[in-house]
Structures are given as C-alpha cells and as structure tokens.
Amino acid sequence: MKVATLLVEDDPGVREIARLTLERAGMEVTEAPDGESALAQFRRRPFDVLVLDIMLPGLDGLELCARVRRSSQLPIVIVSARDDTSEVVAGLELGADDYVTKPFQPAELLARIRAVLRRARPAPGEATRRVGDLEIDPAAFSVTKRGQPVDLSATEFRLLLELASHPHVALSRHELLRRVWDYDYMGDSRMVDMAVKRLRDRIEDDPKQPRWIATVRGIGYRFDAG
C-alpha cells in the first residue's frame, strides 16, 4: 500500500520538486497550495504523513500544525527557510516531528519522511513496561497513566520508550537523536528538548518539577523509574 502524503506548499516549483521526489519513491501525494485547502483535505480522508511549509498564505503552517495535532497523531515534517529559526522552534513546540530547511535536497526530504514513518510503526514483540503509574505498551503503541490513556505523537512515544528502556541512565541529546530520530550525524538538539517538554506536559503531574524525566545538565536526559 502506498504512503498517503499530504504536501502543503505554496511555491509551485518547490511543490513540484517535492511531489516528484515522493512519487518516484512510490508514495501517493495529495497537494495543497495553502492552509485552508490542506485542512479540508485532512478532514476529508486519512493520510500517513503531512509535509508542511511554514510560510503559507492565509492559514499559516504553524496554525495548521496546531489544528492537526489537536485531533491527530499524524507524523508531521515541517519545511522552513534557513533563517526561520524561531519558526522551526515554534513548529516543534506545536508537535511537529521533524523539519527540513529550504533549499532542501530531495534525498534529505525523503529520508526525513521515511524516518518519521518508521517511528510511527508499532514495535511488536516488545514487552509492556509498567513503571509506577505509567504503563507503556510498544505493541499497541499506547501509554496509560493511572489507567487513563495518554495522547502522544509517534515521536513522543518513541522518546518515552527509549528513555524508559534505560532507567537511571543519562542519555545525551546526540544519542537520543540517533536512536529516536534516526540521525546518524549531529542533528538539531532542539528537537529533543521540544519533544521532552511536550512529553513532560503529558506524563508529569507537575512538568516544572518532573518526577520521571530528569534533565542532566550538560548531557541530556534521564528516566527516573522511582
């Protein structure tokens, strides 16, 4: 079955390059030139991944990302200009899974999409982990806290699973980028920090005084199993 991709880009030339790249890789691409039409497409049918330009006319990419994330854990890759650092951070805070910068290499875009799709797959065969009042089920791709479901994106789930699999061990941001985001080089550590922030907001009773995910200054993060 082909990967159903919603591609949102207002520049026709960039959109064509991205579409051809993804179609040549065997993906099914639905195009949208603006946020409003993309939102309509999203509500009309299911997709496997959303590739989203930040700078869009009308409903911009950040607002579209926020609206999609409110009702869906659809993997999201945002696309930004190289000088849009603050916009990238805002997108990651809103729940985007990864990003590429313009002008991008087609192979890089394809690699980032494939990586977020891998993170969205369940991990059959792994045992359920119960840590205090948290239950992490890799096969069902689900987390509960005190018996109540916790709504996590695929990236947030993979990050929690990676941390919980190494209790009381400090994992560097670089190591988490390699294990969770599939970066084989020094990627953007802001992705780790933003994902940890969102994860704390969802599993911690008090995100400002976390019980589970501790910051190890100068290194990264550690999962404290209690």
Low-confidence stretches: none
Could you estimate the helical fraction of the residues in percent? 40-55%
| Share of residues in strands | 15-25%
Tell me the CATH architecture of the largest domain: 3-Layer(aba) Sandwich
Strand adjacency order, main sheet: 2-1-3-4-5
CATH topology descriptor of the largest domain: Rossmann fold
Order of helices and strands: EHEHEHEHEHEEEEHEHHEE
CATH class of the largest domain: Alpha Beta
Described by strand count, sense and barrel closure, the largest sheet is: 5 strands, parallel
Count every helix, treating DSSP H or I runs of 4 or more residues as helices. 8
Classification by helices and strands: alpha/beta
CATH superfamily of the largest domain, called what?
A: Response regulator
Distance between the termini: 43 Å
Write the layout of secondary structure elements.
Blueprint: E1 4-8, H1 12-24, E2 28-32, H2 35-44, E3 49-53, H3 61-71, E4 76-81, H4 85-93, E5 98-102, H5 106-119, E6 129-131, E7 134-137, E8 142-145, E9 148-149, H6 154-164, E10 170-172, H7 173-180, H8 189-203, E11 213-216, E12 220-223
Parallel strand pairs: 1-2, 1-3, 3-4, 4-5
Antiparallel strand pairs: 6-7, 7-8, 8-9, 10-12, 11-12
Helix pairs in contact: 1-5, 2-3, 6-8, 7-8
Structure overview:
By secondary structure, this protein is an alpha/beta fold. The protein has two domains: 4-119, Rossmann fold (3-Layer(aba) Sandwich); 129-223, Orthogonal Bundle (Arc Repressor Mutant, subunit A). The chain is 40% helix and 22% strand. It has eight helices and twelve strands. It has helices at residues 12-24, 35-44, 61-71, 85-93, 106-119, 154-164, 173-180, 189-203; strands at residues 4-8, 28-32, 49-53, 76-81, 98-102, 129-131, 134-137, 142-145, 148-149, 170-172, 213-216, 220-223. The strands form three sheets. A five-stranded parallel sheet has the order 2-1-3-4-5, with helices on both faces. A four-stranded antiparallel sheet has the order 6-7-8-9, with helices on one face. Helix 4 (85-93) links the parallel strand 4 and strand 5 (98-102). Helix 1 packs across helix 5 (106-119), helix 2 (35-44) packs parallel to helix 3 (61-71) and helix 7 crosses helix 8.
